[in-house]
Design brief:
The chain is of the alpha+beta class. It contains 6 helices and 11 strands. Strands 1-2-3-4-11-5-10-9-8-7-6 form an 11-stranded mixed β-sheet, sandwiched between helices. A hairpin with a 2-residue loop joins strand 1 and strand 2.
């Protein structure tokens, strides 16, 4: 953190934005359920995949009571995740006491300026998602790409095409000789644009397509008035985002109840 506390402010904005975007995305999903009480958020996907079932908070209320409420909310599901902010020691103690298992650390990364946009590789065309058919292509890229990260089949099949056409959302596809090969989207909420669901098909990796899409989504956030772009990095994407100009502010501690499925 520097002397004027800029990183602290960015960290607060990014955390609040992730909560807000998780709520927006879950409400937009057919069958998605949200329980929001003040600074506590519970969100559940119809697809019953633990990373899409989450508990987050931004305040300092009774952590044990929050975990108990989450357990009731997620009863009957195979698994859910508690996203524990590093400053929330009480929640970390509560999820540990409740028997949740630490399974991963999840880097929160931000960028505060537009990034240089290079030329697309030969044979590659980057274009915005403009209709339902293109939105379905976007989710198809995610479905195929995220299988390499352990996502089970069918996670993205039911994702809303309308979501990608909202005014507060923008999405792009990188086409290789006309066929979709990579994708990225950004969700605007408040003064932050969150880059999400960045995906590159396995056979197209190593060509810069993920970077191409990520930079375009990042810059779109600033073009739409955001003061900060944020994202949460997978192990595969972290080095890419650092190379592009993102900065890691902190890491969420992910705790699992049930099984990762």
């Amino acid at each position: 953190m520097n002397g004027d506390g800029v990183l602290d402010r960015r960290a607060v904005l990014a955390h609040l934005n992730l909560m807000a975007v998780n709520e927006v995305l879950t409400r937009a999903e057919p069958g998605g359920v949200v329980d929001r009480e003040g600074d506590e958020l519970l969100f559940a996907s119809e697809r019953d995949f633990s990373i899409l079932n989450g508990a987050m908070r931004s305040g300092a209320g009774d952590a044990a009571a929050f975990v108990e409420r989450a357990s009731r909310f997620f009863a009957g599901r195979r698994g859910w995740m508690a996203f524990v902010h590093p400053d929330d020691a009480a929640l970390e103690d509560a999820v540990g006491a409740a028997g949740l298992t630490h399974v991963a650390d999840y880097p929160e990364m931000t960028c505060s300026t537009a990034l240089p946009e290079g030329e697309a590789p030969e044979g590659v065309e980057l274009s915005p998602v403009g209709d339902a058919a293109e939105a379905r292509e976007y989710w198809s890229v995610c479905e195929r790409a995220y299988s390499s990260l352990g996502f089970p089949p069918g996670v993205f099949d039911g994702f809303s095409t309308e979501l990608l056409l909202r005014d507060d959302v923008a999405a792009w596809l990188a086409r290789v000789d006309g066929a979709p090969g990579a994708a990225a989207m950004v969700v605007l909420h408040g003064t932050v644009g969150m880059v999400a669901w960045v995906a590159t098909l396995e056979e197209q990796r190593g060509r810069g397509l993920g970077a191409l899409c990520t930079v375009r989504a990042t810059n779109a956030a600033f073009e739409r008035g955001a003061e900060l772009a944020s994202l949460q990095a997978s192990p595969m994407g972290r080095s890419l985002y650092l190379a592009l100009g993102y900065e890691e502010l902190f890491q969420y501690r992910l705790y699992l109840s049930g099984r990762f499925a």
